[in-house]
Amino acid sequence: MKVLAVDTSTAILHIALLNDDNLDVRMIKKDGQHSEELLSEIKSILRESNISFKDLNLLVATRGPGSFTSLRIGFSTLKGISLALGIPLVSVPTLQVIAEATPDYPAIKISVIDAKKKRYYIGIYKDGKLIKDLDGNAEDILDEIKNESSILVTGPDATAFSNKLSALIDPKVKIITDDQCFRPLGGVMVKLGIDQYHSQGEDDIGQGPIYIRRSDAEEALLKKLANEDN
Q1: CB count, 10 Å around CB of 196?
Q2: In angstroms, rounded to a whole number, what is the distance separating the alpha carbons of residues 141 and 145?
Q3: How far from the centroid of its chain's Cα atoms is residue 46's Cα?
Q4: N or C: more exposed end of the chain, with fewer CB within 10 A?
């Protein structure tokens, strides 16, 4: 099976190509400017594996949360390839990919991405299952972790979030901060994508990135409409 997977939800561009038994995983730091390099990086990884777009059997994209603009770039690029060549596309949750990229952990696992405005995109997982995801702060997850004796925090902004969380909870609770938070995500994206495709099929044609938070443009429009109503 030949699978191309892409994540553009953070400043790190993750690309993976499964070419039958060979997996090529890449991490490219672009500070979120993925529009300038994404297609060329995709062409490069395909060329170096001596395959073309039409050889692909499956496309996998992360669907968020993350940067609004960057998510749209990744999703629209793969959707365009999918529609043009008839290659099935599936999308997987960004926070789940981050959580599953860490080693197995017997207790709560929290994956976090800086959501700006002093907030985080947070995914809470236990035994591989999602307990809760939200756009919030450390204070917002205290009920979900109150009975835990240890917690693993991972993701590109794990250290900052761990510091905030440790100031709020019982010091007896062990917080483990993933010291390799910038892990390659490509292998996990490929695995989750294949599993989802086999169990649920490809995405609906109307599927797009999923945002926990409204964009600044949406917030501005809602504020304008509210003012007009008043």
Answers
A1: 17
A2: 7
A3: 22
A4: C
